[in-house]
Amino acid sequence: MRTISIPNLNKATLQPSNVGQLVAEASLERIIITHADASKLIAKNLSLDEAVLDRIVFTEARLEKLGLADAELQACDFSAARCPESSLIRVRVMGGRMTGVDLSRSTIKDVIFEGCKLDLANFRFAALKHVRFVNCQLSETDFQGAELSNV
Questions:
Q1: Integer Cα distance of 14 and 12 in angstroms
Q2: How far is CA 92 from CA 4, 58, 76, 122, in A?
Q3: Most distant CA pair in the chain: distance in Å?
């Protein structure tokens, strides 16, 4: 299996941001957001490049076509979040709770899920390429129809 290339983001060079900026459904780059509640947030086509999200709660959020590239998610809660048709490219997800997250029809490439609770997660018809699940809970996770390459 080839090495997954995840960027090492220098948090000191990222601009502090807040959850309010996520509502604008914009494209945000080089940001860091910490300790925030974005429960039930509704945002279509939100794109985050070179971003660190630390302890953000996205419980029951609707983030259709979420785009994450060169990002780190630390201890975030995506329980019951709906994120179909999303794109996760070069992302590290550490210690997250993602029970029941919907990532159906998503593109997930060069991603590491580490110490995540992914029970009941939905990866139906998603394309996963060069993805690692390290010490994750995957009970009743649905990969029906998913394309798995180097997973």
A1: 6
A2: 10, 17, 12, 18
A3: 41
DSSP assigned state of 13: G
CB atoms within 10 A of CB 73: 25
| Number of neighbouring beta carbons within 10 Å of residue 19 | 16
Q: Where are the alpha helices (DSSP H) in the chain?
A: 20-23
Strand order in the sheet with 67-74: 15-16, 27-37, 47-57, 67-74, 87-94, 107-114, 127-134, 147-149
Residue 4 identity (one-letter amino acid): I
- C-alpha 124/C-alpha 115 separation (Å) is 21
Per the structure block, which two tokens stand in for 36?
């925030």
pLDDT value, residue 11: 80
pTM for this prediction: 0.92
For 55, what's the count of Cα atoms within 13 Å in the CB-facing half-sphere?
3
For 36-84, what is each residue's pLDDT tens digit?
Answer: 999 999 988 899 999 999 999 999 999 999 999 999 999 999 999 999 9
